């Protein structure tokens, strides 16, 4: 396998995790206008780019075989996004990242999505490891990783450069054998 194939969608208790599609345009427009930051990297900064992004841009990662960007949907509303990226098929590794719309945080959606995607990855691919990296100061993301069953493996000091300077990144990992 050289690409993730989330078709049919990944179903969890409350979420449908699926590829973004053109029908998501209205929701993506409103998110961009409100300057909410939870869409995958590469999402347009202006509503005029939404159609092109939903038709092509959001799917480039999947077409390249390096990962996939997926929408988290509940009750017909896109409440977040989750991505697999930095995928090395030969090594059996990938990384997961996620974001939830500010109005839908603190409901457990990120944890549920990460668990669901991790289970799906291990059930449908030969991946042996999923990494999750979070800013050391992002307590919510650290909690998501732990609640989803990822093991804290260490800290990469000053690994990312933020607006306020270098930031430490906590690395988590999940192996196929960690799934419970």
Describe this structure in words.
With 180 residues, the chain is of the alpha+beta class. It has helices spanning 25-34, 50-55, 60-64, 109-124, 139-147, and strands at 10-11, 16-19, 68-74, 77-88, 93-100, 129-135, 151-162, 165-175. The longest helix has 16 residues, at 109-124. The mean pLDDT is 88.
Core attributes:
globular; single chain; 26% helix; alpha+beta; 8 strands; 180 residues; 8-stranded mixed beta sheet; 5 helices
Summarize the structure.
This protein is α+β, with helices and mostly antiparallel strands. Helix content is 26%, strand content 35%.
Helical coverage, percent range: 25-40%
Q: H/E element string?
A: EEHHHEEEHEHEE
Structural class by sheet pairing and helices: alpha+beta
Low-confidence runs: none
What's the topology here?
Elements: E1 10-11, E2 16-19, H1 25-34, H2 50-55, H3 60-64, E3 68-74, E4 77-88, E5 93-100, H4 109-124, E6 129-135, H5 139-147, E7 151-162, E8 165-175
Parallel strand pairs: 5-6
Antiparallel strand pairs: 1-2, 2-3, 3-4, 4-5, 6-8, 7-8
